[in-house]
Amino acid sequence: MMIEQLKDECSCMQAFLDDHPQILEHRIFQGFLKDPHYYRIFVHAICSPSLQTIEDLNEAFKSHYANVQFTQYLSKTLHWTSINYDRKRRNLDQKQILLDKPWEDGTTGNPLLDEFSLSRNDEKVNLEFVAETNDLSSWSSDITLTKALLRLTSRQRTIIIEHYGNGRKNSEIARLLNISQQAVSRTHLHALKRLRSMLEKEGD
């Protein structure tokens, strides 16, 4: 469907696709063309080629590729942070269960719990150390990324959490927030652009 749509744009596009039949098989390029803005830039460069339109296409694709790399980094970072959170929470719950078990003689309570909580500072277990996953300040060991995440709007933070932390699709997030899937997609994209912009400024 994408190929037919492109071929209808102009004769130059049809010739280009005939000469480069595998270009649309690349997932990154497919994603590039799904963005209406990038789609128009590509069509303009092929149908009305000039130094400027070709340069615009090069810059647009570099921006898209950088965004793909960034989202992969963000997904990996927040996904593994979420996994570590769940692992720590399960371990903590298991320790709590063991500590709360009654003694074999039938006495209630467990004095070891108090002793365990009052042990040396470097061994002390803080039963509240695991933050809720909605607390973005606990999501990454990358301080710069954490600061950038905290500067997002409330809606942007929620969508980032649900997408990368909880693995929800846009349609699921839309139902959860009672908004359209298009609104989720737009907010997600704007959040990524803001994060990239803030991280690039921090890196300068």
UniProtKB/TrEMBL annotation:
Pfam families: Sigma70_r4_2 (PF08281). The keyword Lipid metabolism does not apply. PANTHER family: SIGMA FACTOR F FLAGELLAR (PTHR30385). GO terms for molecular function: DNA binding; sigma factor activity. GO terms for biological process: DNA-templated transcription initiation. Residues 145-195 form the RNA polymerase sigma factor 70 region 4 type domain. It comes from Geomicrobium halophilum. The keyword Repeat does not apply. This is RNA polymerase sigma factor (Sigma-70 family).
